[in-house]
Write a structure and sequence with these properties.
- The chain is globular and about 70 Å long.
- The protein has 430 residues and is of the alpha/beta class.
- The strands form seven sheets. It has a five-stranded parallel beta sheet with strand order 4-3-5-6-7, sandwiched between helices. It has a four-stranded antiparallel beta sheet with strand order 10-11-13-14. It has a three-stranded antiparallel beta sheet with strand order 1-2-12.
- The two termini are 37 Å apart.
- Helix content is 27%, strand content 23%.
- The chain folds into two domains: 14-284, ANL, N-terminal domain (Rossmann fold), CATH 3.40.50.12780; 293-429, ANL, C-terminal domain (GMP Synthetase, Chain A, domain 3, 2-Layer Sandwich), CATH 3.30.300.
């Protein structure tokens, strides 16, 4: 009550006019590399980009209600809890805590019914948790979801099994896998509820947003024109409104990290390809491409194959050093709630899945079953930690990790599988 009295008694304050390029906020990335970077966002560009996004991508207008399940502290929360809906005159719903399984798998759908929510922004991780707890979609049936027209997600690629699951539960909604970054400030690639709705393709984030000229870069800084050929994703300069201005206090680092490798282009740090229809498929971070006996393999493709197994709800694949093949994949998987398993039989079944979907060249031999994967609060898997862990290298855990207790558990399982070098214990540092 004291808090509300302070607000009630507070004097009014006029808005402060600023230049369009005036810094709006500094937002640190989630830091999967354990080295968060301070992204500087401008005021005018953010307002332009988010107003455009709410209208053309999500069809959110004045008096509509919008619900983003993100933390306000992340770029999705800044953009689609605070600025975006309010710039449109829409109502934004704030949820205190993490709206997944609190208190049950139906909490999101109860909010949709209660407030007549038109659009949701969430993360693939959240959908996989819901799929784990509610594989048959029983909680969807308990609520009136007729107001819901759009479900967008960001943070990582929406795998095909999870896309198929959420699409089957919400057949009248546009399921929109959006690709963007804290750095971009605006969605780079997505589908559109208002501008033009493409027929979705599972596994694709659809097509680049106006203002983003996305290309695939191959060896020797040569652009790749052929469809389905994996390469590094780049954006031709100049960038559209809301794009980062610099790294706070590190202009030179900004140029070195994002602009130096490919002159005239922004280096996104992701690997992907276009299909023959111009649909973009973002497969993984560049660092997560595995080189096995001269074959470049995408960890995301392997993770997606593992997720086709009916008992698996989450997966991460990272490279282990190998004297003969250079690198070989090692998988970490999470089972659906209540599933029992035989370690050897399940491991063989998952190896067979990879051989069938990816090919024998993938050489997957080790599968570790864990209770959960190490992730940031924004849903990104800390693959760099897993990679260093199984290769016996000291590592630092990002302070943005959601649950630090999962690290000792995975370390123990890694040791049981022989992934600790003698005389070099693995130590987690926060």
């Amino acid at each position: 009550m004291q808090f509300f009295k302070v607000i009630q008694d507070a004097p009014t304050a006029d808005c402060e006019p600023v230049e369009g390029t005036h810094p709006l906020y500094i937002l640190y990335t989630s830091g999967t590399t354990a080295a968060p970077k301070g992204i500087v966002r401008d005021t005018g560009g953010t307002a332009v980009a988010l107003t455009w996004s709410m209208h053309h991508m999500f069809d959110i207008q004045k008096k509509d209600k919008y619900f983003s399940t993100s933390d306000i502290g992340w770029v999705v929360g800044h953009s689609f809890i605070v600025y975006g809906p309010l710039l449109q005159g829409a109502t934004t719903v704030l949820f205190e805590g993490k709206p997944v399984g609190t208190p049950n798998p139906g909490i999101i759908w109860s909010i949709v019914e209660k407030y007549k929510i038109k659009g949701i922004y969430t993360a693939p991780t959240a959908l996989r948790v819901l799929r784990k707890e509610d594989p048959n979609g029983d909680w969807f049936k308990k609520y009136d979801l007729s107001s819901l027209k759009h479900v967008a997600m960001a943070g990582e690629r929406l795998d095909i099994p999870t896309y198929n699951w959420i699409s089957s539960q919400l057949p009248k909604c546009l399921i929109n896998d959006t690709y963007w970054q804290t750095e971009s400030g605006l969605i780079i690639c997505c589908n559109y509820l208002q501008l033009h709705t493409f027929k979705p393709k599972a596994g694709s984030c659809t097509k680049p947003v106006p203002g983003f000229n996305v290309k695939v870069m191959g060896e020797n800084n040569k652009l790749i024109a052929e469809p389905y050929k994996l390469g590094k994703l780049v954006v031709k300069l100049p960038t559209p409104p809301s794009f980062m201005l610099t790294l706070w206090g590190h202009d030179e680092a900004f140029r070195d990290k994002y602009l130096k490798e490919f002159p005239g282009y922004y280096a996104a740090g992701d690997a992907g390809y276009f299909d023959e229809d111009g649909f973009l498929y973002v497969m993984s971070r560049i660092d997560d491409i595995i080189n096995t006996a001269g074959h470049r393999l995408s960890t995301s493709a392997m993770e997606e194959a593992l997720l086709t197994h009916p008992d698996i709800v989450d997966a991460a694949v990272v490279p282990a050093n190998d004297e003969i093949k250079g690198e070989i994949p090692v998988a970490f998987v999470v089972l659906k709630t209540g599933k029992s398993f035989d370690q050897k039989l399940l491991e063989k079944a998952l190896v067979d899945v990879i051989r069938k979907e990816i090919g024998a060249v993938a050489s997957l031999k080790t599968v570790m079953i864990v209770s959960k994967l190490p992730k940031t609060r924004s849903g990104k898997i800390l693959r760099a930690v897993l990679r260093k862990m199984i290769n016996g290298v000291d590592y630092t855990v990002s302070p943005t990790i959601e649950d630090l207790s999962v690290i000792p558990e995975i370390e123990k399982i890694a040791r049981l599988h022989g992934f600790t070098k003698p005389g070099k214990p693995i130590t987690a540092k926060l």
